[in-house]
Amino acid sequence: MRVGFIGLGAMGEPMARNLARSNLLHAVWNRTEARAAAVAADYGLILASSPADLAAQVDVVLLCVSADRDVLEIVENLLPAIRPYTVVVDHSTVSPETSCQSASLIRARGGDFLDAPVTGGVEGARSASLVIMVGGRPATLAGVTPVLKTLSRRIVSMGDVGCGQAAKAVNQAMAAGINQAVTEALAFGQALGLDMHKVIDVVAGGAAGNWFLDKRGDTMIDGRFGPGFKVALHHKDLQICEQMASELGMTLPLVRQTVADYARLMAEGHGDEDISALYRLKKPKA
Amino acid sequence: MRVGFIGLGAMGEPMARNLARSNLLHAVWNRTEARAAAVAADYGLILASSPADLAAQVDVVLLCVSADRDVLEIVENLLPAIRPYTVVVDHSTVSPETSCQSASLIRARGGDFLDAPVTGGVEGARSASLVIMVGGRPATLAGVTPVLKTLSRRIVSMGDVGCGQAAKAVNQAMAAGINQAVTEALAFGQALGLDMHKVIDVVAGGAAGNWFLDKRGDTMIDGRFGPGFKVALHHKDLQICEQMASELGMTLPLVRQTVADYARLMAEGHGDEDISALYRLKKPKA
């Protein structure tokens, strides 16, 4: 089984490198060619000239890009090269609708498609400990499982095409609410004049404990919002959540507030910071 | 060093029993005498006839009751029996102001006072794994540390009298926000028709992971809101947070929303349920 990887960004590059180290990767393609050329050179891989060129040379295409329109553009480009039994696995975080459209185009050419968004961030991509939420046919998933195991510690089948993205949307919505919860409470503690590093240490060990406080609490109190999960990317994901909720006739108040807060951060030039930069808007005025 | 315990409620009783099993407990008192009589009989302790009667027979008084007015009433009652070096340790969750008032009354009689609210819930009280946030003089804390170690796995000095309660307020405010975050996102997932037990399992292991989802996610999806942390008690704690914030000229939007939501739950007869009962207000209509 020959595997190709499209999209060597912050997540895609370490994922591709893990596949290459396991001798599972055959070809790579990236919009900015230099990034793909570097990975191809490091492991002696084929540097494809286009998504279709890549798809023509492999059995499984893994995809990891940023936005819905990128996925649809690449799928369109792939189509002429799809053969029966080509499987396209999309690790991007996009709308379930984009997954359904992609699946239907690829299936019309005889291939198959899985939506397979991940959690675990850049650290998880590097250490091959991502959790993968999959939507699509169980038999197709079974076929590519040996490949996905090289990237992740956990692969969970969520249902039909789109269900992986729906589960990821729940994850992103919850992350937004937790960001609001943690930043509001830490701002309160800072206004009270408490030793916040002690407070974080104590609170993290109790019933209000959470991953975000544990990993980002101390840095946000110190005013550091360096690399992590970018505000602009979470903003894009939350707009997908809002769209999905509105189709259900639901409102998600914390998601809506977070979209508005992130828009303000982006307007102020903080879109590339970690999402803990929300603390900028909550912390007590000096 | 002889120790007495006042307030044998859901938290206080298992704490007192842990002290008794370590042969550190001398006397007990409780407003509803039957609960104190049972503990006294089990371990051969003195059943005090009043808080002052208890204080007269011990060096250290531990206190664990529900509300600010209970603490102040008991402290008033204790005062005649306070001798130099009597230490009163208040494990209740009340306002920093109540702690400061209590400390000043007890210090005027030559004794000393620590505010020492806990996290870890009933399970933590039973297994002696509470985390204790302490406000007050370090030397006083050092003196009673052997006693507190019998109840907890972690004792953290947060600063002067009141700082233990202030840290606890941050914890309670964060717990409110997390309740909002988790219930909103799970309701979204349920409306999307996902297999929610799978979603919880996956999300709990990622960057949106948190104690509350881990411990209460599955039960809330199943509509079970049994014993845990009572809505009515968290409601009381959050009103303290709101009061503290308003004194700082701050608003805490998630705390405010949660106070309103809990008030509605209490009006509908759910005040004794676990705080995950907030899901009742968020879940999609059947």
Task: Describe the fold and architecture.
2 copies of one chain form a homodimer. The first copy, chain A, is α/β, with parallel strands linked by helices and 286 residues long. Chain A folds into 2 domains: 3-159, 3-Layer(aba) Sandwich (Rossmann fold), CATH 3.40.50.720; 166-282, N-(1-d-carboxylethyl)-l-norvaline Dehydrogenase, domain 2 (Orthogonal Bundle), CATH 1.10.1040.10. The first copy, chain A, has 13 helices and 9 strands. Chain A has helices spanning 12-21, 33-43, 51-56, 68-78, 96-108, 121-126, 138-148, 163-191, 196-204, 211-221, 231-247, 253-267, 279-282, and strands at residues 3-6, 25-29, 46-47, 60-63, 87-90, 112-115, 118-119, 130-135, 152-159. Chain A has a 6-stranded parallel β-sheet, sandwiched between helices. A 3-stranded mixed β-sheet of chain A has the order 7-8-9. In chain A, α5 links the parallel β5 (87-90) and β6. In chain A, α1 (12-21) runs parallel beside α2 (33-43), α4 runs parallel beside α5 (96-108) and α8 (163-191) crosses α11 (231-247). Chain A is elongated. At the A-B interface, β9, α8, α9, α10 and α11 of A face β9, α8, α9, α10 and α11 of B.
